[in-house]
Design goal:
The protein is an alpha+beta fold. Helix content is 42%, strand content 15%. It binds zinc ion (ZN).
Length: 375
């Protein structure tokens, strides 16, 4: 979308260049000074653009247009509702909340420092200052905020105090800029000392205050280790090897040292199942099946192991070929069950063969550890 805007929509090439265009992720706000018919034509033009211009061949998008219509005031854009005032010829703004908004915020009783909880309310007050463009919208939002925070367990007196003592950032900046300038000049020499401690209700606030007073140390709170972290850290099951996708794998033989090396995008278990089925059906084009019947050996399907994981197909196939070359450096394929070498890879990969072989041995040892490996 960014390229489309830069190279087409906002250029002179576009005869319907919008007067105003701003996009945040997939939300775009635009001012259109042409007719509605022309807007439809513009949309058509964008749709066919990818056939006409090589640069946009991969752009795919669907435009859904919202207009300001009667009965539904304004256009929501991010968390702002914009309304046209046709009499005064200006755009009014107010805070917009989706219908699905639940008005639930961090509860007053939750375990956390008070300044953080108050800060949430202050954040909303700041948003109201920059979004609401009329005194009515501003006052309406203040009332709503007070109600929301009281509903989330905050003491009404505290909420009132925060709201009534609130000074908009713009004013704050003006009044304190000079003070701060003189203040920072003196402080520049001193390095700030910050102590990070777990938050314990009651005790931490006292510690913060007294450390700041006595030693000028700033205390910040961390969550500490939660019971959930302690108990559940190891509960998430690791992905079983047979469920892994995008692997280079190896299937050993129970009766000789010749392995089968393959790669697959599917879960490894699925691929092994297919090999088993092909062996049962005596499909002689299949490596393990051919090995089973030609040598009268038993292929160890249960012993299948992962040599490497790789999502990109070409890289996975390159790795497969490299593993085959590492297992079978000679010209003839005599040391593996494979009937071909897979991808043809250049000789310049030879430097990687020793490392590949080590990786292969390591994977085998991981699957079947020898007693000495544990010492
Ligand atoms: Zn064998």
């Amino acid at each position: 979308m960014g390229a489309l805007e830069r190279d087409y929509i906002l250029t002179r090439r576009n005869k319907w260049k919008p007067q105003f265009w701003v996009r945040i992720k997939d939300d775009t706000l635009s001012l259109w000074r042409h007719s509605r018919e022309e807007f439809e034509m513009f949309k058509e033009e964008l749709k066919t653009l990818k056939h006409r211009d090589e640069r946009f061949k991969n752009t795919d998008f669907i435009f859904e247009v919202e207009n300001e219509v009667d009965g539904k005031p304004g256009i929501p854009f991010c968390d702002v509702r914009l309304m046209c005032n046709y009499v005064k010829a200006c755009i009014r703004r107010e805070v917009y909340r989706k219908l699905s908004n639940t008005f639930v915020h961090l509860n007053e009783k939750s375990n956390g420092p008070q300044y953080l909880k108050d800060g949430i309310l202050r954040g909303f007050l700041h948003r109201n200052d920059i979004v609401s463009s009329t005194p009515e919208a501003h006052a309406k939002e203040l009332e709503l905020l007070a109600n929301i925070f009281i509903r989330n367990g905050y003491d009404p007196k505290r909420v009132d105090r925060i709201i009534s003592s609130w000074v908009p950032k713009a004013e704050r900046d003006n009044t304190t800029r000079e003070d701060r300038e003189t203040e920072t000049q003196g402080q520049e020499e001193e390095a700030r000392v910050v102590l990070k401690v777990p938050y314990v209700k009651g005790a931490s606030e006292k510690l913060k205050k007294s450390l700041k007073k006595a030693a000028g140390v700033d205390v910040v709170f961390s969550g500490g280790v939660s019971i959930k972290q302690k108990l559940c850290a190891k509960l998430k099951p690791a992905k079983y090897p047979m469920e892994k996708q995008g692997t280079v794998y190896m299937i050993p033989c129970k009766d000789c040292s010749r392995p089968y090396i393959g790669e697959t995008k599917q879960p490894l278990g699925e691929r092994v199942k297919q090999h088993k089925a092909k062996t049962a059906a005596a499909d002689m084009l299949n490596g393990p099946a051919y090995h089973t019947f030609h040598h009268d050996h038993k292929v160890d399907f249960e012993g299948a192991l992962i040599l490497d994981t790789e999502k990109q197909t070409w890289l996975r196939k390159t790795k497969e070929a490299l593993f085959i070359r590492a297992a079978n450096p000679g010209r003839e394929l005599t040391q593996v069950m494979n009937q071909d070498r897979g991808y043809t890879i250049s000789k310049c990969w030879d430097w990687a063969i020793p490392e590949t072989r080590r990786k292969m041995e390591w994977a085998q040892r991981k699957k079947n550890p020898r007693p000495s490996d544990h010492s």
